[in-house]
Amino acid sequence: MCVSPSSLLSKWVGDTQHLTRAIFSLAARIEPCLIFLDEIDALFRERSAGDHEVYRDMKAEFMQLWDGLFTTNDCRIIVVGCTNRPWDVDPAIQRRLPRSIKVDLPNVSQRVKILQTILRSTQLDRSMDLLHVAKQAPGYSGSDLKELCRCALMIPMKEKLQQESKSVADSASGASLRPLTTEDMLEAVRNIRPTTAQSSEYRNELMKQGTGGAYTTDLSTSEDQMRNDLRDFLLGTLAMGQGMGKNLPKD
Predict the structure, then answer these.
(1) Cβ–Cβ < 8 Å for 243, 78
(2) What local confidence, expressed as pLDDT, does residue 233 receive?
(3) pLDDT at 52 over 80
(4) Is the pLDDT assigned to residue 242 strictly greater than 70?
(5) Can you give the CATH number for the domain in which 114 is found?
(6) Is residue 248 one of the residues assigned to a domain?
(7) Backbone angles phi, psi at 229, to 5 degrees
(8) In terms of residue numbers, what domain contains 221?
(9) Which residues form the ATPase AAA-type core domain (predicted)?
(10) Is residue 208 in a domain?
């Protein structure tokens, strides 16, 4: 069950709390169920005095219902959140998430696969070396690589427009465009910079130090291990009959 901000927020007073309660009520009826919170930082940003009353009530209602999963021993509901800004998530929500899995930026081999997927319907030159291109693009995310390919594809297009005095529509058909080359991709690398800021890595490290016993893993170095750990965690949680847990103090 995917939960987005639009599925919880309402312009009518009181509807937000009712929608929040309806999500857990539906999950209880169809369990086993996984509640997936996409962009969890947008829903549960760290609370402050300037928060609107609707957001405060929604967070309180959600956390109350979340804690209510422990009232039955056979509950099989799991809550999973996804975010690009984990440091913006409310600490009270973080305490209710016993596992933290970092999906890092793609490494060289993963960047090659992403480029192959993006360019699968593009005519490539026989000498195209995507491995070399991937090595020249460290720190690029999937969206960065998509923009990189878009920029590279514009180079043959511009050459075609300069060579022939045709309309933009005729030139854009791509019927007589030359294949994309490694040089085109490298030129795009020089023009397109990665969007991931160094400050994000620093803040991720600070957050990891403050997560206590939360589990973290690095997808770029251990993809299979991450899948196995996540699978074991989900199966173990369902087998034990508890939806989610808290990081309880050892004492």
Answers:
(1) yes
(2) 56
(3) no
(4) no
(5) 1.10.8.60
(6) no
(7) -65, -40
(8) 2-103+216-240
(9) 3-104
(10) no
Do the Cβ atoms of 98 and 49 come closer than 8 Å?
no
List phi, psi (to 5°) of 180.
-75, 135
Q: Is residue 249 part of a domain?
A: no
Cα distance between residue 183 and residue 128, in whole Å:
9
Residues 12 and 50 occupy one common structural domain: yes
Lowest-confidence pick of 6-15, 128-137, 184-193? 6-15
The domain total for the chain is 2
Closest CA to 135 of 180, 186, 179, 184: 186
Query: How many residues comprise the chain?
Result: 251
